[in-house]
Design a protein that fits this description.
- The complex is a heterodimer of chains A (280) and B (506).
- Chain A is elongated and about 80 Å long.
- Chain A has 13 helices and no strands.
- Chain A folds into two domains: 54 residues, no CATH class; 197 residues, MetI-like fold.
- Chain A has 280 residues and is an all-alpha fold.
- The longest helix of chain B is centred in the last third of the chain and has 17 residues.
- The chains are: A mainly alpha (280), B alpha+beta (506).
- Chains A and B meet through helix 2, helix 3, helix 5, helix 7 and helix 8 of A and helix 1, helix 4, helix 6 and helix 12 of B.
C-alpha cells in the first residue's frame, strides 16, 4: 500500500503545474541551468526508482530549496506537529466523550439544546479567528501550549461529540440494557460497561480518521502561533515544488496514517472482547 | 472573557526584558543566506547590510560611490577596472581577507545555479587579473559603464568557504562567514536568525550589539507581538494594518518607498494584443487612479514608465494615458475588435486570461476593478489566481494574456532585461515585447555612462514605452513600517534596513 501511495504522490507532484527550477531561479532566473543542477532533466521513471531505492534506507535525499537533508528537516518539524496533533486528539476525544455522554443523558432538555448551540457556534467559528483571539488574550507565541492545542482540537471535539451523542442515544434504548438492569446492575455499570462500550465504536473510527486531518489542519495553527511543524513544512515544500521534501512528507504522513488505522483495530479489540476471540 | 485570558496564558513564556536584542520582524524565511544563489530580498539585504561587504558601496539615492573592501579604484578605459583592496580586513572566522577571495567570488559568477541577475551583470567579465595581495584588475569584453555599480551589488565571499559544487549544499548557505558589520550567531528554523556586532569590523562599528530577526509569517500575529513589546520593528505593514488609527503604544509609523513599481504585463503573442492600438485602448479603459485609491489604499504614486519617480531618468513630461472609455472603444473598433457586448477578434470572442498571485490583498481588488473597466469597453477578463510556482511556470511558457507583477528598480536604472527583444525567449521579457527602436535605445544605454547623455536616452525610452504600452504601468507602492520609539537611525532603502546604523535608546 505504501508503495502505491508513493507512486501516486510522485506522479501527482510531477504532473502539477510549476517547476522547482523556476521557483529556485525566481522571476529573473535562468531555469535551464537549475534543472540540470537539480537532476530534473532525467527521465521520470529513473528518478522514481532512484528515490525508491534510497528511501528504503530512509534516505529521502536533499531538499531542493536549501540543500539540507529531507530526513533532518522532517525530524526538526515532526515532533512539534506530533505533540500538537496528539494533544489535540486527546483533548478532542476526552472532551467529546464527556460532552457526548452528558448530552445523550440529558437529551431533550434546555441545557442539552444550549450545548448543541454552543458546539455549532464553535464549529462555525474560523480557526484563524479563535487563534488570533487567544493570541490577543496573551497566549504564548512559538511554543506548543494550551491555545494552539485547543484551536486544533475544536473542530474534532465538535464532530466527535455529535458522534458520541448519536451512538449513545441509539444504544440507550437497547434490550440488553434492560436485561442488565433486571439483573440488578447499577445505572453507572449499565452506562459504562454496557452502553458506552458499544457506543464507542463509531467514535473510535472517527478518531482514527481525524489524525491525518489534524496533521494537515495544523498549517494554519502553526502559522498563527509561530510553530515550526509539518504543516508549515509541507506548505513551503509545495510552494517551492520541492519534490524530495514533498515525497518525504507524504511518505511519513502515509506511515502515520497506516499506523493510526492499525491502532484503531487494536482499540476495537480492547473495547469488544468478542473481536479478540474472533481473531485467528 | 477573563477565564479565556487566564487559559490562554497557561504555559506562557516569560516576556523578554527590554535589554534583550533588537527584534525585527521577518515575514518570510529565506531558503538560504548565500547571496550568490538566492534571489530572496532578505538574503540580499542581510548580505549587503550585515554579513558581507561589496568591493564598493553605492548610495541608493544619489548613486555616489564610496569605498567598500576596495579602498581605491581606477577605470583607465571603459573595459577595465583596477581595484586596490583594503588591508588588514579579517573574515568573521579570523582568517585574513585578500585578493584570493575576490577572485574566488568572481570566478563563481558564471556557474549554473548562480542568481540570474548577477550572471547577466557580469556576463562580459573576463578572468580576473591579480597583482599582488591587494590589487585586482577586472577586464570586460565590452565597455561596461555600470561595472562599478554592479560591483556594489556583489558581496565578496570567503574563498576558504567556497567548495566546488552547488553552493546551496555548502555550510555557507546557512552559516554565513563574512567581513561585514554583523556576524552570524544562530538560525533556528522557522523561529529566528540572530546576528551579533562584528567587534573587529574595519569600518564604523554597528551601534547595536545583537539583532534577532523573528520569523513571523502571519501579519496579525506580528502586530500582536509588537503590541506585547516582543518585536521592535515591522518593516512592512499590510494595507489593513497601515489603515489602523490606533498603533501599539510606543510605536510610530515610518513611510518610505522601495524603488519598485506594479504593473500589468500584456502577452503580445496573444491574438489582438500584438496591436499597439489594442494595448493603448486597454490603457484608456483602465481607471488607474481608482486602482491606486482602492486596491493600494491610496498608498502608491502613479507612474507612467519604468523609472524611480525621484530619479532624473523619469521623464515628467510623459502624462500617461487618461481614463477614457469612449476613446478606448474607438481604438478597439479601429483595430478590428468589434461587436455588441463582448467584442470579437477575427470571429473569436476577445477574452483575456489575467494571472495574479492568489491571496494578494492588493491584486485581488485590482483585478476585479480592471475586469469591470474592460467589460465596459466589451473586453472580458478572466481572473485566474495562482500560486507562485504556477505563476512562474506560466509566465516562462508565455501561457497567459495578462499578469500582475512588480519589479524592483536599480540605480542607475536598467531596463534591458524587461524590454529587450532578446529577453523574450527564456528571459524576463514575459510579454514578448519586440520593438526595434526600443532595442536600439537599450543597446545604446548599455554603453552609456551615467550622466546627462544617459538621462536623455532614458527619457526617449520612457516616451517609447508609454506609446507602445507593453505594460499597463500602475504605481510605486508606499511602504509603512511600524517602528518602536526607542529605535533610532531607521533609514530603509533598496539596499536594506540600514542595520549598522540602528541604535536604541536606553
Amino acid at each position: 500500500m505504501l508503495l502505491g501511495i508513493t507512486l501516486v504522490t510522485f506522479v501527482l507532484i510531477e504532473a502539477s503545474p510549476g517547476d522547482p527550477a523556476l521557483v529556485r531561479s525566481g522571476l529573473k532566473g535562468i531555469a535551464a541551468d537549475n534543472r540540470a543542477l537539480l537532476g530534473l532533466d532525467r527521465p521520470l521513471p529513473k528518478r522514481y526508482l532512484e528515490w525508491l531505492t534510497h528511501s528504503a534506507r530512509l534516505d529521502f535525499g536533499r531538499s531542493l530549496t536549501d540543500g539540507r537533508w529531507v530526513r533532518s528537516r522532517i525530524a526538526e518539524a515532526l515532533p512539534t506537529t506530533a505533540l500538537l496533533a496528539f494533544a489535540a486528539l486527546f483533548v478532542g476525544f476526552a472532551s467529546a466523550l464527556v460532552l457526548g455522554v452528558w448530552s445523550a443523558l440529558h437529551r431533550h432538555t434546555r441545557r442539552a439544546t444550549l450545548l448543541d448551540g454552543a458546539l455549532a457556534l464553535l464549529y462555525g467559528t474560523p480557526a484563524m479567528a479563535t487563534a488570533l483571539l487567544l493570541l490577543r488574550l496573551g497566549a504564548p507565541y512559538g511554543s506548543v501550549g494550551f491555545a494552539p492545542v485547543v484551536c486544533l482540537a475544536l473542530p474534532s471535539l465538535v464532530t466527535l461529540t455529535r458522534h458520541q451523542h448519536t451512538a449513545l442515544v441509539e444504544v440507550l434504548g437497547a434490550d440488553y440494557l434492560r436485561t442488565a438492569r433486571a439483573k440488578g446492575a447499577s445505572e453507572w455499570t449499565v452506562l459504562i460497561r454496557h452502553a458506552l462500550r458499544n457506543a464507542l465504536f463509531p467514535t473510535v473510527t472517527v478518531v482514527s480518521n481525524q489524525l491525518p486531518v489534524l496533521l494537515s489542519g495544523s498549517i494554519l495553527i502553526e502559522q498563527v502561533f509561530g510553530l515550526h511543524g509539518m504543516g508549515q513544512l509541507a506548505f513551503d515544500a509545495l510552494a517551492a515544488r520541492d519534490y524530495p521534501l514533498l515525497m518525504g512528507i507524504a511518505s511519513v504522513s502515509a506511515v502515520i496514517t497506516l499506523l493510526a488505522v492499525q491502532a484503531t483495530e487494536l482499540c476495537y479489540a480492547l473495547i469488544d472482547p468478542r473481536l479478540r476471540k474472533a481473531a485467528p | 472573557m477573563k477565564w479565556l485570558a487566564l487559559l490562554a496564558l497557561l504555559g506562557c513564556k516569560q516576556e523578554a526584558p527590554r535589554s534583550a536584542p533588537l527584534r525585527l520582524h521577518m515575514e518570510a524565511e529565506p531558503p538560504t543566506l548565500n547571496p550568490l544563489v538566492e534571489h530572496d530580498a532578505w538574503t540580499t539585504w542581510l548580505a549587503l547590510d550585515a554579513f558581507y561587504d561589496p568591493l564598493v558601496r553605492q548610495d541608493p539615492a544619489t548613486a555616489a560611490l564610496s569605498p567598500g573592501l576596495a579602498l581605491r579604484w581606477q577605470q583607465p578605459d571603459e573595459r577595465t577596472v583596477i581595484l586596490t583592496l583594503r588591508r588588514g580586513v579579517k573574515w568573521h572566522d579570523g582568517k585574513p581577507f585578500s585578493a584570493t577571495d575576490v577572485l574566488a567570488t568572481l570566478a563563481r559568477l558564471h556557474e549554473p545555479g548562480i542568481a540570474a541577475e548577477l550572471q547577466s551583470e557580469f556576463a562580459d567579465l573576463e578572468p580576473v587579473e591579480r597583482v599582488g595581495d591587494d590589487t585586482v584588475i577586472l577586464h570586460f569584453r565590452r565597455p561596461d559603464p555600470l561595472a562599478l555599480s554592479n560591483l556594489s551589488q556583489l558581496p565578496i565571499l570567503p574563498a576558504h568557504q567556497l567548495a566546488a559544487g552547488d553552493l546551496r549544499m555548502q555550510p555557507l548557505a546557512r552559516t554565513p562567514v563574512g567581513t561585514g558589520p554583523f556576524r552570524f550567531l544562530e538560525w533556528r528554523t522557522g523561529e529566528s536568525i540572530r546576528l551579533a556586532r562584528n567587534e573587529r569590523y574595519w569600518g564604523a562599528p554597528a551601534q547595536i550589539a545583537e539583532i534577532e530577526l523573528r520569523i513571523v509569517r502571519d501579519a496579525e500575529a506580528a502586530w500582536e507581538l509588537a503590541r506585547r513589546g516582543e518585536i521592535d520593528l515591522l518593516w512592512r505593514l499590510s494595507p489593513a494594518q497601515a489603515d489602523r488609527a490606533a498603533l501599539p503604544p510606543g510605536f510610530h509609523v515610518h513611510r518610505w518607498h522601495l524603488p519598485s513599481y506594479s504593473f500589468v504585463v500584456w502577452n503580445l503573442q496573444r491574438p489582438g494584443l500584438g496591436d499597439v492600438r489594442v494595448r493603448q485602448a486597454l490603457a484608456l479603459a483602465a481607471d488607474r487612479a481608482r486602482y491606486l485609491k482602492v486596491a493600494f489604499h491610496g498608498r502608491a504614486r502613479p507612474i507612467t514608465g519604468p523609472y524611480p519617480l525621484d530619479s532624473p531618468s523619469y521623464d515628467r513630461t510623459v502624462a500617461g494615458w487618461p481614463h477614457d472609455p469612449v476613446r478606448a472603444r474607438r481604438l478597439l473598433d479601429e483595430a478590428g475588435i468589434r461587436g455588441d457586448g463582448l467584442r470579437r477578434w477575427k470571429e473569436q470572442p476577445f477574452r483575456l486570461t489575467f494571472l495574479l498571485l492568489a491571496g494578494s490583498q492588493t491584486l485581488t481588488p485590482l483585478a476585479t476593478m480592471l475586469q469591470e473597466d474592460l467589460r465596459r469597453v466589451g473586453v472580458e477578463l478572466e481572473i485566474v489566481p495562482v500560486d507562485w510556482a504556477t505563476l512562474l511556470d506560466r509566465l516562462r511558457k508565455h501561457d497567459f494574456d495578462a499578469a500582475a507583477l512588480q519589479w524592483m528598480m536599480r540605480t542607475p536604472p536598467d531596463n534591458s532585461h524587461e524590454f529587450h527583444s532578446s529577453e523574450s525567449a527564456g528571459g524576463q521579457n514575459y510579454g514578448s515585447f519586440r520593438n526595434a527602436e526600443v532595442d536600439q535605445l537599450i543597446d545604446q544605454l548599455k554603453h552609456t555612462a551615467p550622466g546627462p547623455a544617459r538621462v536623455a536616452l532614458d527619457h526617449q525610452l520612457h516616451q517609447l514605452l508609454d506609446r507602445e504600452q507593453p505594460y499597463l504601468f500602475l504605481g510605486c507602492p508606499e511602504i509603512h513600517s511600524l517602528v518602536a520609539e526607542r529605535l533610532h537611525g531607521y533609514a530603509p532603502s533598496a539596499a536594506g534596513l540600514s542595520l549598522a546604523r540602528l541604535s536604541v535608546s536606553p
